[in-house]
Each structure stands twice: as C-alpha cells, then as structure tokens.
Amino acid sequence: MKFSIGRTAFTRGLNTVSRAISTKTTIPILTGLKIVAGPDGLVLTGSDADISIETTLKADDPDNMLAIESAGAIVLPARFFTEIVKKLPKDTITLEVGENFQTMITSGQSSFTINGLDANNYPHLPEIQTNDSIPLAADLFKQIISQTVVAVSNQESRPILTGVHFVISENHVMAVATDSHRLSQRKVTLEKPINGSYDFVIPGKSLTELSKMIDDAQEEVSLSVTENQALFVIGNTLFYSRLLEGNYPDTTRLIPDSHDTRISFEAPELLAAIERASLLSHESRNNVVKITIDPDKKSVTIYGNSPDVGNVEEDLEPKTLEGNELEISFNPDYMKDALRSFSQATINIDFTSALRPFTLTPTEDSDSFVQLITPIRTF
Amino acid sequence: MKFSIGRTAFTRGLNTVSRAISTKTTIPILTGLKIVAGPDGLVLTGSDADISIETTLKADDPDNMLAIESAGAIVLPARFFTEIVKKLPKDTITLEVGENFQTMITSGQSSFTINGLDANNYPHLPEIQTNDSIPLAADLFKQIISQTVVAVSNQESRPILTGVHFVISENHVMAVATDSHRLSQRKVTLEKPINGSYDFVIPGKSLTELSKMIDDAQEEVSLSVTENQALFVIGNTLFYSRLLEGNYPDTTRLIPDSHDTRISFEAPELLAAIERASLLSHESRNNVVKITIDPDKKSVTIYGNSPDVGNVEEDLEPKTLEGNELEISFNPDYMKDALRSFSQATINIDFTSALRPFTLTPTEDSDSFVQLITPIRTF
C-alpha cells in the first residue's frame, strides 16, 4: 500500500474515527485505526466494540489531495499515529507499508517508520442494509439527543436505563430517557411517514459521541436499525452503535395528566436562581433545594442551606402562578439539567403535591417535550 | 461592617487575591479571604503562607461603585464566597456583617447568609519598607521570569534549586535557575542604577503566580527585598513572597567559554523537529533524542527511537554549521523548554564534546541569555 494525502483532510478524518477509539479496550488491535486504500479512496475505521466509526476520504475530492499509488490495508497505533500526522512539517504526507507491516510516513525531510498490524485481524463491522433508512433533520436530531440524554442513568445496575428509548412509526418519533429519579420525553413529527415501525434503545454514550460529530453544516442524518445495531450516515461517515438488549419500562403512565399548582418562568431566569441556591446545597450532605409557593401572596421563594457554610433565600417573580399553596424539595442538579434543555423558552412547572413528581413543559407546543422530576422528602 | 460595591470590580479583586489561596493549607483560616473596609476603600487579602496577595479597591475610583457605610473586617470562605459573588443577579451587591460574624450578601432579590470568621485571627502580612524599591519594566520582568523558571528544579531534595537566584547591583540584574541537568541565565541592564546590592532566591512557584498577575496594561513592577521576604507592587496590588534560605551554588563556572562545534537555527524550526522526534522518544523508557553533525557533508540529522513503536529520522537545515563532527544525545523535553524560551529568535548551539554541556544563545545580544543542557551518555 502506498498513497499521498493532504495533511489537513487526513487529520480531519483521523480525528473523526478517533472518537470511537478507546485506550482502555481489552482487545489490543482496537487501540489501532484501520486504513484501507482502494479504488474509491481511503477508508479509515475506529472502534471500541460498542461504537464504530468509518469515514471515507474520496479519491475524487480535490480537497483531500489524495493519490493512491497501490491499494492495501494496515492498522496503525491510533493516538500515536494521529499525533505524528498533526506534527508533520509539510502539507502533503506520504504513507507506504513495507515488509512486516512496517509503515513509513514521510513529509518534507521528516521520515517516521512505525510498526503496524495486519488489517486482516481487525474485527469486521456489522452489515446493515440502508435501503429502509429513516432521514432525520440534523439540527432537530441533535436537539432530541441533548434533551433526552440528560435523564439517562449512569448506573450499570439497570443497563437498559443507560440508553434512550426510541419509538418510531409513521411520522412520529418519541424519545424517552429516565434514571428513575427523573424522566425526559421528546416527541417530533417527521415530514414524511416512514415504512414500518421501530422500537429500540440506544446507549446514551453513543448518542453523546454521535451528537459531537454532527456539525452545523450537516443537513441530514439517516438512520438504519437492525435487531442489535443502529447505523447513522452523516455525509461520508458511518456511525455504528450497538443497541441495548431488554425491554424498556413503560414510561407513558409516569407522566401526570393533571396538576394542582402551576408556575411559569423564563427558563434561564429560574436556572440562574437555582444555580445560586445550589451553591449552598452542594456544600451540604443532602443536596436539596426547597421552593415555597403561596398563591394568595403571589410569592414563590427558593431556599438553599448548608449547616457549615450558611443559607440562601431568594424571592422569584414567576410570569404566572395559579393553584394551591405548596412547599416542595428537590435535587437542584436535576432541575438545572432540565432547565438547560429548554434553553431560552418559557416553561410551565406543574405540581400535584409535595411527594408526587412534577413536570416542566414549554408553554408553546407543550406536548412535544416534558421533563419530569421526582421530589425529595424532607419531612 | 457594611458596604455596597460593583460586582465586576469586586469579582476582579476576588480573583486577584484568590491566586494566593490554596484549599490544601494546614492553617484553616487561610482557606478564607480577608475583607477590610476602611476610609480608603476595601482591602482584600489572600495567602497560603508562602505567597500573600493584597489588593485595594479604592473608594474614590468610580469603576468600583464602592460605598462604605460602616468600617470593619471579616474573613469569608474564599472559593465559596467568590462563586456566590460571580452568580449574583444584579450589578451591585451589598455585604453586611452581623452578630457572630454572620455575613449577609444581597443582590436584587437574592440574599445569602454565610458564616464568617474573626479577622483578628488572620495572620499578619510581613512588614516591608518600600523606600528603596527597585523599579522594573513589567514586560521585561515577565520575560526574565518565563526564561528562567523553565530550569527551576521541582525536586524538594535540594530546596534552594526550586528557586530563581537574583543578583542585582548598580544597573545589572542577573537571574539564574538550574535543576542540575540544565541551567538558564538571563542578564538585563536597568535604565537607572539602584542603591545597594541584592542577592536572593525566590521560589519558582511564586514567580509563576506573579507573572500571571502582570497583564499587558501594566508598565512597571516595583520590587522591595528584606532578609526573608520580597514584595512586588503592581498597581493597587501587593504581592509578597517568602525567599528561600541557604546559599545558591556558584553557577558562573558552569557555562563553557569556548566551543568546538557550532550550529545555528531559527528557534521555532528546530523546536518543531525536536517535537516530532520526541513523539517517539516519549514512548521509550529512556527519553533520548540524538543529533549527528557532519560539517564535511554539511548535514545535521536528528533521530528518535522507541523499540515498541518505531523510529524517526529528519535531516535539518541549519543556517550555519562550523567546527568538528559530533554525535550527541539529550533529553528532548529540556531542549523544547529551552527553545520555547527564545520564541522567534535565531540561536547558536555551541558544543564542545558528546559528554560536555552545550549552550543555546541568541545570535544577537548573546551575552544577555544562555540556556545550558547536559547531554545524556548513551554509549
């Protein structure tokens, strides 16, 4: 194998597949990245067994400055090889595989010889048909991810809760995540109905990595699903993730359909007040912030307290306030995550009682998005 | 004590004194910061016993928006208090000390009450006369610091080597640091001769912190020295550092005054080549890079090697090359630190033999700055 390529394009490709490569893998060859030179161009692959990323640097794209002299394949130590490429002196680099997988990388006067591995020993990627792929608007899909992954569990005790549950049929997409203390559910409508229906759970970690790969220039991401794998196509890059096995709990009945007290806020304003209150609650052993709502006095007050350091009290100014008097305590970190996911929107917070979960929904298009938080009993 | 102040100016002052405050102190009150409200304004103090920083927010500076209602003093938990001030909702904040050092901080509708400590228990700062202070140009002093601290030792086995040795008399300043593997010596000439002469060793850590406090707007730093303390005055801020006790070794005889081989380079070009070579040497147990110089062939070649990963070889193009043939090995990290301290300059590297220290000096004004590196024996 021998080819020359532009350093900028090559570095970009290496960075893309490096996202999937972990130094902590138990399969030594997965610390490497696979390079295959073929008639279409250069195919780079990285994998940690859960996630695999494959990107193609096309021979006919002049930006890649790619010239393949002879086809072939090699696996090179990923972190190390990427660092070398970044530091090479000239804009063009040449890579040539010699005997015993010894690989020579040259650029200007600089010449590296590094020990490669046989690409035949690199695991095969899953085979997924992309005929029935589901097209998703890239920015909307990124929003779905960021709004749901906040509620994903990071406890391995119930593995299924470490993923986001997707239910897709006709033109409806529902994504939901819960760690059993809080829940986030997002619904969107597709422009065109799809064939068939899908019900799968994708690891939160995969979605977080995937989201980082979708930049603003990207218009569409297409999704294909098999029994145990999902494939996302983003331009010239393929992103594979395993799916979580098992049944996701039925979450539809967890969301209350009525309320006894409702307050509404600009999300960023309430977020700033919760951040102040949590400065003190974080210094305390039980990280709790309390809100009292008094509809007669039209007052909402927030309290944070730490026996060692002190306490904070702040009168809030809700946009609206209706229903019963209430005093309720909660984990401010859950509240901060939830509020951030609404960015600049105005939201309703709906309560039933001090020990029942409460919900945050946008005042506009309120069916599309709900964050649910379970309060903390302090009495 | 009661005062109100602008949040921006207060935050800036808190950030300044926080540089001296460590969470790892063995003296509990030093995790706090001292606030004194007096006729001139607000004086903030932070200290970790080695370094102390005092800054004054003047009452007559309109930018501070400072109004002192009653004088007094308090010590407040530093990290925590600074975070509160940053997150307060309005531009003005009010601070009032009540009974038992309980301190109320209010801004807008937000009201914090935190537990303070008696300022009488806060250690006194050293008393230093500033009559005979030495004025130093701020940018030049920052350069002296950055060029010498690279060679400071971080081993506590010889504490005196963890500092930079300053010798100041008439209009000469010499600063030198060595960790016994390398040495850096900088000489500057003052515009006006000073009274008396000074010989002291200041901890490298103090200088690094001090350097961060000198921003580009600062024109002058004035220095006063006592037997065991140095005081730097930077605008409205005082920076105290303890001095290291003991005699600094005589370093003047370490610097060779002749050479048998000389090569010259643009510092950034050689730096880039050393960085590439060290990618491989870092993967090896002994972190060594080799240079061979052949004046007949007019060639300089650099080698890095790791048995596990591979090797690198690069032909360099020196600006000049004269003297004897040589093969010499060294720690590339020392070389990188040394080269960075020359920034964009052209330098001479002067060698005597493969086992004798070699020096880097700027081709212009070569007496003013020398970096010395001890080679590594590889045969």
UniProtKB/TrEMBL annotation, chains A, B:
<dbReference type="GO" id="GO:0006271">
    <property type="term" value="P:DNA strand elongation involved in DNA replication"/>
</dbReference>
<feature type="domain" description="DNA polymerase III beta sliding clamp N-terminal">
    <location>
        <begin position="1"/>
        <end position="126"/>
    </location>
</feature>
<keyword id="KW-0963">Cytoplasm</keyword>
<dbReference type="GO" id="GO:0008408">
    <property type="term" value="F:3'-5' exonuclease activity"/>
</dbReference>
<keyword id="KW-0239">DNA-directed DNA polymerase</keyword>
<dbReference type="InterPro" id="IPR022634">
    <property type="entry name" value="DNA_polIII_beta_N"/>
</dbReference>
<feature type="domain" description="DNA polymerase III beta sliding clamp central">
    <location>
        <begin position="136"/>
        <end position="250"/>
    </location>
</feature>
<dbReference type="InterPro" id="IPR022637">
    <property type="entry name" value="DNA_polIII_beta_cen"/>
</dbReference>
<dbReference type="InterPro" id="IPR022635">
    <property type="entry name" value="DNA_polIII_beta_C"/>
</dbReference>
<dbReference type="Pfam" id="PF02767">
    <property type="entry name" value="DNA_pol3_beta_2"/>
</dbReference>
<keyword id="KW-0238">DNA-binding</keyword>
<comment type="subunit">
    <text>Forms a ring-shaped head-to-tail homodimer around DNA.</text>
</comment>
<comment type="similarity">
    <text>Belongs to the beta sliding clamp family.</text>
</comment>
<dbReference type="Pfam" id="PF02768">
    <property type="entry name" value="DNA_pol3_beta_3"/>
</dbReference>
<dbReference type="GO" id="GO:0003887">
    <property type="term" value="F:DNA-directed DNA polymerase activity"/>
</dbReference>
<dbReference type="GO" id="GO:0005737">
    <property type="term" value="C:cytoplasm"/>
</dbReference>
<dbReference type="InterPro" id="IPR001001">
    <property type="entry name" value="DNA_polIII_beta"/>
</dbReference>
<keyword id="KW-0235">DNA replication</keyword>
<feature type="domain" description="DNA polymerase III beta sliding clamp C-terminal">
    <location>
        <begin position="253"/>
        <end position="377"/>
    </location>
</feature>
<keyword id="KW-0808">Transferase</keyword>
<comment type="function">
    <text>Confers DNA tethering and processivity to DNA polymerases and other proteins. Acts as a clamp, forming a ring around DNA (a reaction catalyzed by the clamp-loading complex) which diffuses in an ATP-independent manner freely and bidirectionally along dsDNA. Initially characterized for its ability to contact the catalytic subunit of DNA polymerase III (Pol III), a complex, multichain enzyme responsible for most of the replicative synthesis in bacteria; Pol III exhibits 3'-5' exonuclease proofreading activity.</text>
</comment>
<dbReference type="GO" id="GO:0009360">
    <property type="term" value="C:DNA polymerase III complex"/>
</dbReference>
<protein>
    <recommendedName>
        <fullName>Beta sliding clamp</fullName>
    </recommendedName>
</protein>
<dbReference type="GO" id="GO:0003677">
    <property type="term" value="F:DNA binding"/>
</dbReference>
<dbReference type="Pfam" id="PF00712">
    <property type="entry name" value="DNA_pol3_beta"/>
</dbReference>
<keyword id="KW-0548">Nucleotidyltransferase</keyword>
<dbReference type="InterPro" id="IPR046938">
    <property type="entry name" value="DNA_clamp_sf"/>
</dbReference>
